[in-house]
Design a protein that fits this description.
The complex is a heterodimer of chains A (about 80) and B (about 725). Chain A is built from 2 helices and 6 strands; from the N terminus they run ββαβββαβ. Chain A is of the alpha+beta class. Chain B has about 725 residues and is of the alpha/beta class. The chains are: A alpha+beta (about 80), B alpha/beta (about 725). The structure holds guanosine-5'-diphosphate (GDP).
Chain lengths: ~80, ~725
């Protein structure tokens, strides 16, 4: 699948923004774990809290809040905010 | 007939709450065989049936990501429960349905407990359970508020119906999309030919998801075929099979809830989010965390102390006296039997029971932190720092608790999810100098270093932490090398007021488990030690020999030369250390017996009524002091800030503890030099904490790991003591 929008890692998104998840780099184990928790390609996530150096809190699927380590937020690719499909 | 019904669900969906509501105190906490995952089982009688309820571990999925998931799935496949209750959080329905779909794929009689209905309602989430039930193929959907036992009767009825009336659950067959379905169709004949014990379609999906556990369990030919099929899928679609399957499940969930669930505006900012801005803050979060940990530490170390002293006094005083008196009536005074009962059994039972108040305090603190939702935040804020040591954010709590007592510290490792993290943390916890080691430092400190004795104590605590840091680097670099750290992903449950019933049952279940599991080991070992002390080797009578002439003394003499390079190669020192293996509390009393030949005389007998009064008064005082310790957490905390002084409450007007065991101190000055004293103390700090801790390690991590840890602590302690002594000699101190 090709994405023509600008994509950035989730770690670059500022708190308060909502973005669409397009790809997860890394092993199949990581992808599956994230999918189990409600983070799969095509979903929207909202960054609740975090800075560029530490872990992040994101909101997915309604009211679920997930804490994601730095190692993961670098691997999750999202469509840069401010663009629509 | 006995029925087995199990509870499955996401963590924090309210599974334990519903389990407790169903079974009450008729429950049993244990471990899954060979795993460090907790197993809870309870019983109840329902309409003439005896029902066993099994609380499966909380999971988000049934893939093979964690021990919890494998346990859940194996239990459902192997034990074939009569019904499965899926506990779901109504306020997070979509994510919870992900697990429900996977349970349905396994063809089990299912009941959906729609818990947290109150939370969903307060967030204006409306769920049409009729429609939901129909779309799930007729699975009963029971709205519940677990914490207030609302819906419990309806759940019991639905559960029994599902378990007894084996109406086939129509398998919900979700369409995974043409490319995946085509490969499933290709795999099915192969699977049927191999006659595996798994439902065929379920197995085909799992194999395409590259489930490591199942790929290793099926015949190699099938595993290979599945891998090729998965490769074809990703070639054709450009996405991996597992992503496509997860995607299909989520679209199916989208269909399921469309029109059945309505919610107000998406993603409102909740109260929890606002609290997290402070509690999960990069800076404030850490400050608050450290403050809370300090309070937990005070709780386990000090609040439990008065009751601990009371239990200790009860066993060494009245219980012993009565036993002696009763035996006297049978003419058994002075016999070996009396000695066995008094020194072996009563000493052993007392040694087990003194841990009960400590564990109560610890489990109270853990239950409140967990149930309020704070524990997840603690891991979140500390993760940054602990990662540098190769540890997990949650490793901090067990290590801190370890400064109070190693035993609850070991049990506190349960709050970590990953078994490797648990083991490493348990390993490090033993180097946190526990409260029972302190009296040894103090006796040596005042015998050798006078006013500077505080420095000795401080240095020993610091050495313990240093050794822990080095051990952590060693373990994570060498032993667990190559195992990538589990990615840090964690759900942050909303904050809640802890449920008193959940907290009470948590404390009760875990303390009872300690008594059952560790208690028996400690009791047996204290009888063995008694036996070693009773067997004479230089002539003399059984059970009436000096420590030096017993088998215990003989073994000490054999061991003693090992400590010569560390400067304390006398049998008395080795004996004291062997006694310290049972518990560090006994080192000082063992030393006063061995070094000064004093025997601890029983207090003069007194009438039973006086004893009864003393026990009651003692208990009353202990309870008052417990209250006082709780209050005193405030001034102690304030006094930590330099320049602040706030008086502590002293309700019973007790003089401060002065200690001072002068006869022993004189004897020690004759037997040790300041340098050998330091080396001896380093050994006391680092070696095997105590029998109870060893029993706890065995219970938590298994016999092999326990043995490894005992060996490691002994070697490190021995090397540490030698390094201190030899370095001292080299520098000319000594
Ligand atoms: N408001 C509300 N809270 C609940 C309900 N059921 C459980 N809780 C609380 O939710 C928290 C998590 O519940 P617990 O049973 O420990 O979840 P588990 O992880 O699934 O075992 C606890 O604080 C419970 O008291 C419910 O129906 N409504």
């Amino acid at each position: 699948m090709l994405h023509h929008e600008h994509t950035i890692p989730l770690s670059m998104v500022t708190p308060g923004e909502t973005v669409e998840l397009v790809h997860i780099h890394g092993g199949q184990k990581l992808r599956k774990r994230l999918a189990d928790l409600g983070l799969n390609v095509g979903m929207t996530v909202r960054v609740m809290q975090g800075d560029t150096t530490g872990p992040m809190i994101v909101a997915v699927k309604g009211d679920t809040r997930l804490a994601l380590g730095r190692g993961i937020t670098h691997h999750v690719v999202v469509i840069a905010p401010g663009q629509s499909k | 007939m006995t029925l087995t019904i199990c509870l499955a669900g996401n963590p924090n969906a309210g599974k334990s709450t519903i389990f407790n509501a169903l079974t009450g105190a008729r429950q049993h906490v244990g471990n899954w065989p060979g795993k460090t995952v907790e197993k809870k089982e309870g019983r109840l009688s329902l309409s003439g049936h005896e029902v066993i309820i099994v609380d499966l571990p909380g999971t988000y999925s049934l893939s093979a990501f964690s021990a919890e998931e494998i346990i859940t799935r194996d239990f459902i496949l192997d034990a074939q429960p009569d019904a499965v209750v899926a506990v779901v959080d109504a306020a997070n329905l979509e994510r919870n349905l992900y697990l429900v779909l996977q349970l349905l794929e396994m063809h089990v009689p299912l009941v959906l407990a729609l818990n947290m209905s109150d939370v969903a309602e307060s967030r204006a989430i409306r769920i049409d359970r009729q429609t939901l039930s129909e779309r799930l193929g007729g699975v009963p959907v029971i709205p519940m508020v677990g914490s207030r036992a609302i819906g419990l009767d309806a759940l019991k009825a639905a559960m029994m119906r599902a378990a007894t009336d084996h109406a086939a659950i129509p398998p919900l067959c979700l369409d995974l999309g043409a490319p995946v379905e085509q490969e499933i169709a290709g795999l099915l004949p192969l699977i049927e030919r191999e006659a595996t014990p798994y439902p065929p379609r379920w197995l085909a999906i799992k194999l395409l998801e590259a489930d490591e556990d199942l790929l290793s369990k099926v015949p190699p030919a099938l595993a290979q075929a599945a891998q090729q099929a998965a490769d074809r899928i990703s070639e054709e679609t450009g996405e991996d099979a597992d992503t496509l399957i997860a995607d299909a499940r989520y679209s199916c969930i989208g269909e399921l809830v469309r029109g059945a669930v309505s919610r107000a505006a998406a993603n409102p900012i909740t109260v929890s989010d606002k609290l997290d801005r402070v509690l999960a803050h990069r800076v404030w979060g850490v400050v608050i965390f450290l403050a809370l940990m300090w309070v937990v530490f005070q709780f386990t170390a000090n609040v439990s102390a008065p009751l601990l002293d009371w239990i200790d006094g009860l066993f060494s005083g009245p219980v012993t006296r009565w036993t002696v008196a009763i035996l006297g009536a049978f003419g058994l005074n002075g016999t070996w039997f009396e000695s066995l009962l008094v020194d072996g059994v009563i000493g052993g039972v007392g040694g087990v029971l003194v841990f009960v108040p400590v564990l109560f305090a610890l489990y109270f603190a853990i239950a409140v932190l967990e149930d309020s939702g704070y524990m997840a935040r603690a891991a979140f804020v500390m993760d940054r720092f602990m990662q540098k040591l190769g540890l997990h954010g949650k490793s901090f709590l067990p290590m801190l608790v370890g400064f109070g007592c190693t035993v609850p510290g070991i049990y506190a490792t349960r709050t970590l999810e990953n078994p490797d993290d648990r083991k490493i943390t348990g390993f490090l916890t033993t180097f946190m100098s526990c409260g029972a080691r302190l009296p040894v430092y103090v006796v040596f400190g005042s015998a050798f270093f006078g006013a500077a004795s505080g420095n000795l104590v401080f240095a020993l605590y610091a050495i313990g932490i240093g050794v822990a840091v080095l051990t952590s680097l060693l373990l994570t670099r060498l032993v667990f090398k190559g195992k990538p750290a589990a990615p840090f992903v964690m759900e942050l449950p909303p904050y809640r007021v802890p449920n008193p019933r959940t907290v009470a049952l948590y404390i009760w279940g875990h303390t009872a488990e300690f008594l059952r599991r560790a208690g028996t080991v400690i009791l047996a070992a204290s009888v063995v030690i008694w036996l070693l002390l009773a067997i004479p080797v230089n002539g003399g009578q059984f059970a009436r020999v000096n420590a030096g002439d017993s088998l215990f003394g003989a073994i000490s003499r054999v061991i003693a030369p090992v400590f010569a390079p560390a400067g304390f190669g006398q049998w008395e020192a080795a004996s004291s250390l062997m006694a310290g293996f049972v518990s560090k509390e006994t080192i000082v009393s063992a030393m006063s017996q061995i070094y000064t030949n004093a025997s601890d005389d029983l207090p003069a007998p007194q009438p039973l009524t006086d004893d009864a009064r003393d026990i009651a008064v003692g208990l009353g005082e202990a309870l008052v002091l417990t209250g006082q310790e709780i209050v005193n957490i405030v001034p102690r905390t304030v006094n930590v800030i330099p320049g602040m002084h706030m008086p502590e409450a002293n309700l019973l007007n007790q003089p401060p503890d002065t200690g001072g065991d002068t006869a022993l101190e004189t004897a020690l000055r004759a037997a040790f030099t300041p340098l050998t004293a330091l080396a001896f103390n380093v050994f006391v700090l680092l070696y095997v904490p105590c029998l109870a801790a060893v029993a706890a390690m065995r219970q938590e991590f298994g016999t092999r790991w326990m043995g490894l840890q005992m060996a490691y602590t002994l070697v490190v302690a021995w090397l540490g003591a030698i390094v201190v002594y030899q370095a001292g000699l080299f520098l000319g101190i000594g």
